[in-house]
Here is the input.
Amino acid sequence: MPVNNTMLEQATSDYLLWMVSNGYSPKTVESYERVLKHFLVFINRRKIAWSDIFTLDTMQNFQKSRSKATAHAVRGLSRYLFQQNRIFRPIEKKECRLPEIYEDYLAYHARIQQVQHIQIVRIRRVLFAFHDYLERFKINLVSIRIEHIDAFMAEFNKKFAPQTKKTYRTYLRGFLKYLYHERRIIRKDLAPLVVGAPLFAQSKPPTFLRLHEVQKLFDTMDLSSPTGLRTNAMLELAYNLGLRPKEICLITLDDILFSEGELIIGDRKNTNPMKLPLPESTIKAIAAYIIGARPENDHRTLFLSLKAPYGPITSAMVNHHLKIFMRKANLPSTAYWLRHTYAQNLLEAGASIYEIKEMLGHDSIESTRKYLHIHINLMRKVLFDEEL
Here is the structure.
């Protein structure tokens, strides 16, 4: 069997298992499996090289022999492999160029923010819809007002979940800042005015793990495999330091000061680098991963994929592996539950809200203030004279 066919067969199997573990419906998994089997036969018959499999041309040729409905499965597989660092980029829809000002912004944003290709694709999608809206109503960029933007967001965002709406507003705010600060095209910075509708009596406090759940989580960890060693190190960093998935995936070997027992976090959300103390258990977990699981290569990033070409993993993969492990421990939680648990522990230890803000790397004190609502231990002790 050709090497490409073997690699694609393994990749397909991994992807389908990933779908199952992430809660996709059996009907969807069965449908994707059927399509990807046909895709495997198509690639094998055409003897297409691995580097040319996940391209728009290959997928379009495959669709000619099947149907357009096959695109979802093939694109999904390509996105999964891209997140795994097994291909250089996923299959995207045929790109339509926007007017020059939009393209200039996308190039500027990619250069300044150093974001991944997939995020630029998502921003392009929002800007394309925004441009189309302005064209339909014959509104010039120079004369846009907040009323126009509100009307666009109401139309564009109506079918999306709250978190997706928030993300898309962020994308649009970035473009508006660029128009005002960098290009001086609009007279007023409209970005701060792009906000979501107020939610009354719907405040959802952060979720966190109880002491017995944390104990169960660490007791369940399997340290007999490279994946287990890597996940354990990530778990230690998320729980004992409250790091975000993005902060975990950006840690380099040079950031770890073993002799001082410290970790340098240079790329925080609030851009304020800081040193955090490393507990002994975290140091041991990192050392065990480096010695027993980390591939040997020239990359300085701490966490790497465990399959060739052994590139740095993404924040999505950090979140994915932690989430999968927590589900195996029968804890329906995510990587951010660990961060919230860290904040809860600081609060119970007597840390002030300002200290917690610095330790979590929050931009604003308002981001930290919500943690005041999860101090359940103290609340029960005061109100009911009981311990949690």
Q: What stands out?
A: Residues 26-46 form the longest helix (21 residues). Residues 349 and 368 are 16 Å apart (CA to CA).
